[in-house]
């Protein structure tokens, strides 16, 4: 049976010890899904990695979940000389290379793929858009989505060509994949070109971290429960740590990555978006602009460091040869596509401050890196210790922590302190850490959906709440620019770290100065 997601429920109650009834879906628990529209979706870059690794599988999953409206059509567009039949066979072959959480359902795939067609096009040639226009005009879909899964250098040309072909009508939407620009100026140029052709509410800028279930859970935790909000401020929270760690290296993306680096690839977008989700004020409603207005305020409140503070508050690193999962791996400079004398960072750790009443004086530590000891992403909220401790608490276990884990698992843990009830007399009377642990996979089981499926369903439904508005993106670029400029003047600040470690030692010093350790150091 295909599980059908109800179109819209609000939050559902979740008792700590109880499973929710099967009739309520995981999705319905945390976001409202308005009914999806009858759609045509066009993937530019239809034979690219993103298309077969993420986008097509996400649509296939949405289909399997019964979420795609019946008449919808999917068109892959690329330069390769294929026809629709050949593309479908190619897609099946690529799907065979993916890991699926459940056994692959062949009949389901065959049924899904009948909706998929292929169109050979040179995206740089405006005359090629006539055939696209004909395909679209074969019927009147409620929503037509152009998904630009191509290099950002093509964005401006594609938008101009779409406009010339009259493909920017009110029922048309455009989805932009990152990287959206290389710096503030190039991002502004792209956005200006897009906004000459489409209105802001037709533009869906993807940050796939916003599509992760745990980010939905964070919103629900903060704004669907009254428990935490009174404590969610400087009086009770001493610091926040956000980590996105990857054990992989740059894989086949060396030449892209070498021009980007971790700050552009992960901090300007994913990490700053997560920071906004943690730090924003409660929005007036869950509509897109209410949420995005609050995120924008956070970005605008970020303290900009002086030139001489940047070396202290921002740590940059690059991996050297080492071990990953027990097997030897090369250093960054030996990766394919990377310049042998590159000073591009594969690791960043930063200390940020948010200058507003809620957060003044609370340090936010963010870090991300490739070839680290493990893959994982989490947000740790460190609460202040009790003002007058009457119990002994060994080994630094002196404060509560809320840990929101995004991956590999989707969990929320509340770390409390309890009295040890051990036989060992020495331990008696001491406080020991215990965790209340909520595992969303366990609670909601098979009904969970992946980020790209959620985001594509939002695009088809026309909901912008999980997408980044232009001014947010601009504010994020504005904040990272002084760091990029500082690094251009001081390439020597890029420190080496061994693949398979937790990054440069200086990142530990960054938090240790304030008496805080990274999770793996506790
Ligand atoms: C992408 C970055 O946006 O996010 C990649 O370009 C990175 O370099 C990826 O590997 C991480 O995403 P996830 O969802 O695997 O944590």
Structure report:
- The chain has 522 residues and is α/β, with parallel strands linked by helices.
- 34% of the residues lie in helices and 20% in strands.
- It is built from 16 helices and 17 strands.
- The chain has helices at residues 26-30, 49-64, 84-95, 106-113, 129-137, 155-164, 184-197, 213-223, 254-260, 262-279, 288-301, 307-313, 440-444, 451-461, 470-489, 505-512, and strands at 39-44, 73-78, 116-120, 143-148, 172-176, 203-205, 237-245, 314-320, 322-324, 327-329, 347-352, 364-369, 376-383, 401-407, 411-419, 431-439, 494-498.
- The strands form 3 sheets. Strands 16-15-14-13-7-12-11-8-17 form a 9-stranded mixed sheet, sandwiched between helices. A 6-stranded parallel sheet has the order 3-2-1-4-5-6. Strands 9-10 form a two-stranded antiparallel sheet.
- β14 and β15 form a beta hairpin.
- α6 packs parallel to α7, α7 (184-197) runs antiparallel to α15 and α11 runs parallel beside α15 (470-489).
- The longest helix has 20 residues, at 470-489.
- It is globular and about 80 Å long.
């Amino acid at each position: 049976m295909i599980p059908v997601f109800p179109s819209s429920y609000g939050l559902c109650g979740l008792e700590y010890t109880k499973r929710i009834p099967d009739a309520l879906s995981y999705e319905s628990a945390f976001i409202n899904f308005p009914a999806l529209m009858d759609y045509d979706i066009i993937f530019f870059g239809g034979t690219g990695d993103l298309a077969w690794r993420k986008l097509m599988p996400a649509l296939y999953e949405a289909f399997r979940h019964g979420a795609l409206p019946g008449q919808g059509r999917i068109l892959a567009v690329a330069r390769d000389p294929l026809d629709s039949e050949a593309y479908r066979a190619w897609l099946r072959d690529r799907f065979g290379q993916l890991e699926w959480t459940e056994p692959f359902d062949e009949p389901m795939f065959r049924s899904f793929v009948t909706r998929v067609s292929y169109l050979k096009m040179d995206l740089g040639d405006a005359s090629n858009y006539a055939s696209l226009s004909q395909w679209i005009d074969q019927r009147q879909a409620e929503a037509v989505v152009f998904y630009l899964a191509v290099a950002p250098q093509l964005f401006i040309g594609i938008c101009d060509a779409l406009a010339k072909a009259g493909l920017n009508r009110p029922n048309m939407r455009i989805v932009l994949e990152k990287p959206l620009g290389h710096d503030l100026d190039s991002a502004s140029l792209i956005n200006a070109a897009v906004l000459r052709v489409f209105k802001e509410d037709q533009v869906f800028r993807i940050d796939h971290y916003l599509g992760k279930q745990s980010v939905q859970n964070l919103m629900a935790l903060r704004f669907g429960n009254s428990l935490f909000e009174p404590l969610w401020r400087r009086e009770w929270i001493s610091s926040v740590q956000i980590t996105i760690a990857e054990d992989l290296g740059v894989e086949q993306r060396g030449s892209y990555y070498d021009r980007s680096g971790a700050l552009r690839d992960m901090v300007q977008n994913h990490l700053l978006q997560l920071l906004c989700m943690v730090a924003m004020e409660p929005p007036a409603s869950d509509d897109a602009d209410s949420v995005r207005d609050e995120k924008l305020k956070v970005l605008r409140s970020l303290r900009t460091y002086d030139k001489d503070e940047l070396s202290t508050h921002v740590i940059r690193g690059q991996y050297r040869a080492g071990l990953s999962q027990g097997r030897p791996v090369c250093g960054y400079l030996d990766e394919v596509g990377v310049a042998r004398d590159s000073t591009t960072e594969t690791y960043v750790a930063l200390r940020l401050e948010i200058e507003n009443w809620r957060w003044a004086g609370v340090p936010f530590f963010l870090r991300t890196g490739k070839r680290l000891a493990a893959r994982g992403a989490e947000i740790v909220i460190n609460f202040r210790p009790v003002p007058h401790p009457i119990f002994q608490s060994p080994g630094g276990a002196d404060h509560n922590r809320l840990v929101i884990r995004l991956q590999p698992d989707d969990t929320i843990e509340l770390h409390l302190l309890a009295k040890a009830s051990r036989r060992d007399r020495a331990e008696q009377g001491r406080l020991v850490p215990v965790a209340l642990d909520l595992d969303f996979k366990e609670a909601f089981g098979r009904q969970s959906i992946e980020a790209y499926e959620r985001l594509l369903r939002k695009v088809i439904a026309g909901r912008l709440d999980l997408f980044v508005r232009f001014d947010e993106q601009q504010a994020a670029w504005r904040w990272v620019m002084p760091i990029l400029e500082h690094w251009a003047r001081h390439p020597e600040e890029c420190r080496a770290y061994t693949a398979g470690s937790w990054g440069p030692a200086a990142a530990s010093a960054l938090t240790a100065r304030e008496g805080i350790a990274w999770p793996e150091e506790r």
